[in-house]
Amino acid sequence: MDEPDAGSAGGILCRACRFPVTADQYIVAVNDRHQHTFFNPAGIVFEIRCFARAAGIAVHGERTDEFSWFAGYRWQYGHCTSCMTHLGWYFSSVGHSFYGLIVSGLLDGFRG
To answer: 11-108 belongs to which CATH class?
Structure first.
């Protein structure tokens, strides 16, 4: 696993513990957008940003396609590797994967 890259411009941290989780250089567009708003089966709304890599995220749980926000993708939970705060999900399909990280759980390493 690569080391998180918050020491350079564009570093993105866990809001709870300030651990580096990813960087702006790993931003990706999924379904033509980098940022999405979804709700889960309980009606909780999540605003997420998509990243190709997030070395500071630990992936947990069995892969499932139940209530997946992205057609053809299975998901698993993503937690901060430092404090274990739930920061989003890891989505994977044949030949492609990305992290969907919860905007309110992230902190820009330089702008706050």
So the answer is: mainly beta
